[in-house]
Design brief:
Radius of gyration: 17 Å
Order of helices and strands: EHEEEEHHEEH
Structural class: alpha/beta
Shape: globular
Largest sheet: 5 strands, mixed
Oligomer: single chain
Number of strands: 7
Distance between the termini: 26 Å
Strand content: 5-15%
Length: 203
Amino acid sequence: TDNGVKVIQEALGTINQTAFSREAIDYAYAHGVMIDASMADENSRHHNMPATWNHTLPVHTIRFNNDSYHDSTTFLAFDSCTNYGGHAALSVSGTSCASEATGRTAGIAGLVYSMGLSLTQPLQLSAEEVMQILKQSADDVNVPESHIIDPATGLGQFYDSKPGWDQRFNYGRMNAFNAVSMVQQGRIPPEVDVASPTWYRPS
């Protein structure tokens, strides 16, 4: 953070979080550094640390739905080797688990920061502004076929999705072009930092 870094990628998960870790994340955030965090890889809703801390951007992967994209019917299938839930922010196209999503997110976030600096009147984007841009520029995931349920099994062909935010696909699929275009057009969202309540009260 003190050496000019703008994005920190963390592809790890724990069941708890130390005060030192929380303070490090908050320090980075306050100094304009975005932390993109892995949702981890258990196809579970549990609260993975440090992704659940307020100043991170938790991401996971979505992918094509068969072994090969040539044989697939969608590129919007939930990746069952990644987690989901109320604290998830974005889905990222990939072929592996949530760790891959963090790497791709770091690259896209770097493009967003760079676009701000390349403008005629350069913008030093904050971490919160970059996170809001990535969320607001995402492609909504709403696959109509996911609403079709087999009455015999009670299951559908795809995990359920719906317009707007949902637990499997969050704010949608990250779109690098849309995100960079928002900055280029000066469409910078307001900065809101909801610091309380946290998912878990620090001890």
